## 1
Amino acid sequence: MHKKTTFIAILLSLMMLLSVGVQNEVMGYVSNSDEIEEYVNIPDKLFLKVVNKNIDKNRADDEKVTKEDMLKLKQLSVYQSDGIDITKVDKNSKRESIIPMYKLDTKWMVTRKMKSIEGIQYAKNLEAIELSECEISDITPLKDLKKLKYIEIGLLMFHL
């Protein structure tokens, strides 16, 4: 009987220790739940590259973007801006493009092949955007960006 009682006592002690360990693990998970990052859905891979390079030119082209990352954006351009104000750039200056341009079947038409700016609606601090030579047909993601003062969308190709 003594062996049985000892065995039960040891078993109960182990169960209590395990339950405390599980409880601490669960509490740790719950306490860290505020730190879960929310990612922005940016389906166009070219636009994702543009966003990443505007956040930091050293970011990976396909790095997931959080809502917090989007709040850092004050300007967004298809060109490397290196911290310059895109609203004051000399349009004749040579700037490096983030995404390449492709010549179409005509003599003068080019495209960057970027088709969507879905996800830009999370850039609530965006003040200026420059998207030229793209194939964007829907600019409604810009409509609720209250701080947006400058929009350059020259030479866009709309597919109606």
Note: The radius of gyration is 26 Å.
## 2
Amino acid sequence: MIMCYVKAGDIVSARELFDQMMGQDVFSWSTLISGYISTPDMKEASKLFVRMPNPDIMSWNLMISGFDQMGNREVTSSNLFFKESPEKPGVMEFRYSRDCFVISWNAVIGGYASHGFAAEALELLRLMKQYNVRPTYIIFLSVFNACAYAGLVELGQIHFKSMVSEFDMQPLW
């Protein structure tokens, strides 16, 4: 029912129904967040997201997409922090903490890699290793793309070997 209100553009009724629910599930949280993003009210979407007990991939993607659509220069949550670089106006920097979720690292490294910021993507991989956060296949794919985009073939090979030797991850051919 929340989705019906959201699709009709009645975010007030959607929120009232959500607040009256006894046990909100991930779907109801994500649906309401999506509604706020579409209104567009990123402030309210952010408040709701921070209160969400167990944000999943869909809710993270909704928030990142929402901030991207709004053209915001700042994205924050308790574990993920972007801010416009004072040294490079228009460039977002990732502020990390030791307790970042792997999905946060995935999103940021992938974003840097896909926008041609190979050095930043590689620096975050180094920090992940320093903080003993185990990279995923997705992170390594982003690192390989960053290296390929920047013409860093030898460095890409080094990271490929690291994937196999340090993390015992076999290529998925």
Note: The chain is about 60% helix and 5% strand.
